[in-house]
Amino acid sequence: MMEQVMLTGGTGFLGSAIARALVAEGHAVRALIRPGTPRQVLDGVPVTACLGDLGDPNAIAAAMAGCTAVIHCAADYRIWVPDPARMHAVNVTGTEAVMRAALAAGCRRVVHVSSVATLKPRADGPAEETDAARPEAAIGPYKRSKTEAERLVERLVREAGLPAVIVNPSTPIGPRDRRPTPTGRVILEAAQGRLPAYVDTGLNLVHVDDVAASCVAALHRGALGERHILGGQDVPLGELLGEIAHRYGRRPPIRLPIAPLWPLALAAEGIARLTGREPMLTQDGLRMAGQRMYFSSAKAARVLGHQARPWQAAVGDAIDWFGAQGMLA
């Protein structure tokens, strides 16, 4: 059934993939886009651009006019930020504004694109949807704000009848990662041969287009107010970097212990505050490295029909796109 769907975050990495998936399914897309935001990742995708941002309730309402469904994908996704309050304004306050606008507009379905950042990793295996984290226990402003936003959505489902399904992507990788995302930056620097060492950890890698397909599936499937993990395969970081090194015929990077890196992370953050450039090494990143971010997508496979191609294909698509953009030079 064709619908008019309002999409936030459409010029972002995952959002642009969702826009493509929506169009491929025959939906009309109205994308809330901040004035001045580059739109190259939407080139050739027939979407209606509605100018505004998450801090403007009138712009959100105007973008939602005539829409029967909403996919809220916009988020500030960075491991380190100089001002956590600005991230909170986007990830929490902005989410509330979108959800309340959807209630006012009478939308039949809202898909809230959350994150596995809202879950507690397990030491004995992959985490599941029931492993909910508390905001105050989350590592760093990104995880904390995404957890707060998810709890807000859950509360509105219970108390206001918000028809929202929650999806939790793990670590999407692939084409059109223009910023790039923190994991995309690791892949890019490894492909450039600029990552000689790493701290051992583990990630759940999934192709961004597979996540997007399941976000669109959630418009018609999925349990209201419940989480659905959209992941791929659990991969040790050393294996990921080894795959990239093999692709270029290089020796894989060496593994470093965490303890000696704390002073370097502190210094890197200090430099970042002076330069405004995001540091490659952060204290929160080291704290996260102590946890293996492994997740099960069994529920999403059963309920949404979620499928994930091999992670190596996602890495290859990411590197090929970086190369086509001239970013590997």
Descriptive notes:
By secondary structure, the chain is α/β, with parallel strands linked by helices. The chain is 41% helix and 16% strand. The protein has helices at residues 13-24, 57-64, 84-105, 140-160, 182-191, 208-217, 237-247, 262-275, 283-289, 298-304, 311-324; strands at 4-8, 28-33, 47-51, 69-72, 109-113, 164-169, 171-173, 197-199, 202-207, 229-230, 233-236, 254-256. The relative contact order is 0.14.
Main β-sheet, spatial strand arrangement? 3-2-1-4-5-6-10
CA-based shape: globular
How many separate domains make up the residues? Answer: 1
Q: Helices and strands: which structural class?
A: alpha/beta
Order of helices and strands: EHEEHEHEHEEHEEHEEHEHHHH
Largest sheet: 7 strands, parallel
Helix content: 40-55%
CATH architectural group: 3-Layer(aba) Sandwich
Relative strand content? 15-25%
Distinctive features:
329 residues, alpha/beta, Rossmann fold, single chain, 3-stranded mixed sheet
